[in-house]
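Bumping with the actual sequence this time:
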Amino acid sequence: MGVGSKVWSLRSFLCSKQPQLLHPDKNNNSNGSINHNHNHHSHMCWRSSVAKPTSWSMVCGFMLFGLGLISLLTGHMASHVEWYSQRFVHRTLHSAQDGSERAPIDIWESQYSRYYYGCKERGRNFAPAVSERKSNGYLLIATSGGLNQQRTGITDAVVVARILNATLVVPELDHHSFWKDDSDFNNIFDINWFITYLAKDITIVKRVPDKVMRSMDKPPYTMRVPRKSEPEYYHDQVLPILLRRRVLQLTKFDFRLANDLDDELQRLRCRVNYHALRYTKPIRQFGQKLVMRMRKMANRFIAVHLRFEPDMLAFSGCYFGGGEKERQELGEIRKRWTTLPDLSPDGERKRGKCPLTPHEVGLMLRALGFANDTYLYVASGEIYGGDETMQPLKDLFPNIYTKEMLAGEELKPFLPFSSRLAAIDYIVCDESNVFVTNNNGNMAKILAGRRRYMGHKRTIRPNAKRLSTLFMEQHQMDWDTFAEKVKASQRGFMGEPDEIRPGRGEFHEYPSICICEKPYIDQALSEDVFRPPKLAAENLTVKEDSSLDEENEDSIRLPKQSVGRARRW
């Protein structure tokens, strides 16, 4: 029997069973209501019975033809068409297997994560780094913002240095932002590892040589490039200045490079962000110590980035139920940003722009199925409202810990430095079994991208737009109904592999070019586990090694092409 006939038979079966799918509450309606529903479904079945069977191969063909035509017109190439075609097949096969696209989701891990891995290798035609002597000059970078915003700036600085064939001077961190941390690059990141790891990509030096500085007639030229500038801008506007002045400084360097770049430059971004930017040994060791303490109490735990600090709430322009006191306090803080527009708190909440309260985060997690004995690590600064705001979350999840609770006096050396404290939270959140974001901030995006790259570890992003409506209506429904609606709202926001689309969002959050598909053969898997498309045909063995030492990661190699080629999403 052909695919079209099978699908037609399935549709006929579902149609014949349709009355059984009605909500139980509808059985209590009047006869007229029941007859109306029955007639409606009969009408649907009648239409199905007289229609001709659809050839799915023809439908797929027309879809691919249309997508191909669109991609030619928009400049996006076949990788996008391939992704959408795989996604269509993925959903079709998944639905045919379990009879529904509403199959339960494992709340602790994705069943498909084993099929993907981070890939950042250079292509065959990727030219070696230009030596310091032959480079076009020295590029100085002044980053901006908090630790994770600066991390994106450093990542893009390496790519810009590659574009300009420049020698990169180790970037200067921001000492004047809201966080007022005077840490330098070498206080946060392993500077020698950074230079050595990227030696094949660009040349990096710790400072401009004195000989070069003495030979200059003028101080280094300083400029600020527009946000999201394309590589062509750097070639046309920045390179001539670099060649003329020999030393050039780019200031306030945050998000100054376009999101969409060619594949080689995107993979360079991944090498920088996920490998070269390694924290210093004291920070790494302290972060791992906290992870071990969490693991001793529970085999698995959730890390929640609440981001419910006063500055975040003031910036959002939202209202959280604290009355006139809250409006005055947050209003005063909001005055720090003179360019912010007046916003409607209700409008922002309906648009999904407001972070959830700690209580709402707890309700979401319980509705998704996490039990109240689950251990939570809360990564956050000062919570607005203090213990009173946190108590509803503690009632739902009594086992809540923070770095202050886990470390005690050991944390004292880090307390004066907000960036080092943020780095410790970053490590614990990265190592958690489940990471829950509560805003679209830089840490949330970078960690979400890293966890995708490192194997699609479960990352939950609240669908605030739909959840806000549910929270307002929660008292009008029983708990089971509320929980089902939360689960439905969160589909597509749970960190599953198929949530990534080429060109979607910021690359730091959706590093699609750097996520590859594993060749597949694991005969030990039960037959009822769904396998992503194109994997079941491979006759290959992939050994997973979770104990890889990062110092030796350059020795890791992808399977040779004679064995099988990894396919990119």
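The tokens above came from a reply further down the thread. The radius of gyration is 27 Å.
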